[in-house]
Amino acid sequence: MEQDLKKIALDIRCDVLRCIGNLGVGHIGGCLSVVELLTVLYFEEMNIDPNEPKKAGRDRFICSKGHAGPAVYATLSNRGYFDKKELLTLNRGGTNLPSHCDMNRTVGIDMTTGSLGQGFSCAVGVALGSKLEHDGATIYTLIGDGESQEGQIWEAAMFAASKKLDNLIAFTDYNKLQIDGTVEEVNGIAPLDEKWRAFGWNVIDVEDGNDIDEVRAAVKHAKLGIGSQKPTMVILNTKKGCGVKWIEDLGAGNHNTNLSAEQAEAAIRELRGEA
Amino acid sequence: MEMRAIYADCLDKLMQEDKHVVLLDADLAKASGTIKLREKYYGTQIFDCGVAEQNMASIAAGLSSYGFKPWIESFTPFASRRICDQIAISIAYAKQNVKIVGTDPGISAELNGGTHMSMEDIGVLRSIPGLVIFEPVDGVQLKAAMPVLNEYPGAVYVRLFRKELPDVFPEDYQFDLFRADTLRTGKDLSIFVSGMLTKDTLEAAEALEAEGISCDVINIHTIKPIDREAVLASAGKTGAVLTVENHNVIGGLHSAVLETLAGEKIPVKAVGVQDRFGEVGKLPYLREVTGLTVENIIKTAKEAAALK
Prior knowledge:
The structure holds two protein chains of two kinds. By secondary structure, chain A is of the alpha/beta class.
């Protein structure tokens, strides 16, 4: 399975590059940094059925950093929610795959997100809903490190701990970069682990959030928190733009950047070891 | 009976009938009159989010996506301008079924003063696509509206006067969320009124009648979408219009009526808050300083009728 997940992550990463390259521009950095997490959740951990995308009691994934939409779409299509060809419609007029996640347009998307901070609160609401229904679902959500500067994140953090929502497992894509520079330069959030602990959450720190094995172990560890009366935050130390050297080297510049189809194909060859 | 008591009784009934009806509060359950429901529902259908309205709004969206029918409540400014983006994105754009109750509209915030006195909530929210904006005028209408609002599958902002209001409607009143109610008919002037000033407007119309100006008085309880048919029919008939509202004349009922009548050659005057903030005081004082008085309605009505 380990090898399979690595291969799947590679396919997803290539599809992210292909669909953004096809368009010519997109949120590349923050998509490539979360591929391992999406792979583990959608291909190993989540109780979901692509043939019944709205099945009651299913696990949910809410991508609060909504600009990682292309990475989620690539994951959903690899998981069989829709045809991969649809990925090439990304951000074109009339598409079902807009830059930011939209539950009313895309099969498999559980929440409309994009205005940072809000999706996290929505996930908390979903976790509360699942508790009230006693359906045993696990609610996963992903926030950005820049997004963690939003006050609403901490309002939601307090509420989730206060209401003992231990069915909520959150992840921070801690790639240390945001649009204007490094997170610490712009408006520092460190020490992130201590903050979440102080807010009453279980905290799991993952040294390399782009290592499939580490992410797998962390998610399994996080699930042990169900029953602990506390929500769990998994801090994924990731690399923005992970997997393609020149994109990684753009640093903060890779948040939303141009990518030609040729560059995308070259990057895919690099990833597949064909360069 | 106070409006908040009627509101709370209606919610009690709705929650009793359907466990998916839930209420979220932001530390104002006492002010909203719903504190008394907590014994029955706290932790199962009622949750206090504390002083964190933005989180409350998005949590409600999350609950809605899970099949619940959430109501959220706070004072008007904190249920509108403070959570404008959450209403726009988490709720309206995401097509979630959330009822947003803002209490103490306009000058009715009285002693809480300018910070809590929302003159702009309708204006702030009216341009959000698909959002319904409803302002009840009395307990009869509120009681009739609550189950309709609960069943309406979409986002509604309810602008709720908290304290007692005089009855305008009879007990057998038939409520339609999207149809305005004609309270009085006349031929010289159309008065479109919302919220707490409805009874005053009827009083003004009575006085105007005695002076030879007969008025249509139409309660626009749903400011968005406005009942265009009712507005156009009445204004077309009388040829002059007055709007009366406890809100800034920019962005609220006056604006909605003007938009409806755009292109029609019909004069329109307004009684409303003249683009200013609120201040502390009791209602009689606040009515005087903002011009929301029966006398000013009569005076402005005459000006409007004279413009024909």
